[in-house]
Amino acid sequence: MADITRRFGWRHLRSAPTAHIRHHKRGELAHDGRGLSFWYRSLSAALSEVPVDDRELAMAFHARTADFQDVTVQATVTYRVSDPALAADRLDFSVDPDTGSWRSAPLEQIATLLTETAQQHTLDVLARTPLAQALVDGVAAVRERVATGLAAEPRLPATGIDVVAVRVVAIRPEAEVERALRTPAREQIQQEADRATYERRAVAVERERAIAENELASQIELARREEQLVDQRGTNARREAEEKAAADGVRTEAEASRKVRLARAEAEAARETGAARAEAQAAWLRVHGEVDPATLHALAATRLAENVPRIESLTLSPDVLTGLLAKLGRADGGAGA
């Protein structure tokens, strides 16, 4: 929208470079062009402002496919006013000379024209296309048909409008139909997810089984080694017992042999001692047998005297002394004889 200022009953208009201004004064064209700036009187001026920049027109409308399914088409048309003078002649682009705002809605008229034209060609395409094909290939087909139809529309060049580009954003069915169409794909995706889950679980189970088998093999190997260790310990203990028993036997045999030799030596010594004693006794007896009884009595008395306790004093009565002297006298006499 152009900027309009007031000065002493005059009006000053300053437009943008993308706006085409047409100024009629008393029925004659006084100013015509883009980005103009001029003074004018509001009572005698007729102004029109035509935007010449590219405009984006978003549109959404319903259509029906060949299998009687409702779909929503979302598209965008880019257009521009290529002939501002022709557009100003065909559409009301006049602006208020005091405020600079449009007196009507020319852009809405252009939007209605483009939307209805695009909708007409879209309906023509989708009416011959099943829903499944429309969802797969409908975007390209509708875009091509709408672009061709707008290019061939006679009212657009007659109004000074050029279509720059056509874009079809989406073709969507109703929510229930869309959910129904999504169900097979979702089921397939869910099946793939389940299959991946099952495979992951199978791999996990296989790994757990491998781990369990490794643990079991380790336990079996450990038990086998423990068995070997027990057997070896038993063998070592048995060998140790056998060696100990053999050593004990050798030691016992040596001790017994020593005792036998000792006993034999003691017996031989005892036999020799007894023989010697017997010979000494026999000799003693022979000697005593050859000696007279008086000598034996004297020896006996001597032995007895050697074995009796020490006598400090001895008192003899006269009778005993007389008898003893008499015996001694006889003994001396017998010895002298």
UniProtKB/TrEMBL annotation:
Cleavable signal peptide: none
Ranges for region Disordered: 231-252
Domain Band span(s) in chain numbering: 35-197
Compositional bias (Basic and acidic residues): 237-252
UniProt-listed SUPFAM superfamilies: Band 7/SPFH domain
Species in which this protein is naturally found: Streptomyces cyaneofuscatus
Name of this protein: SPFH domain-containing protein
Domain of life: Bacteria
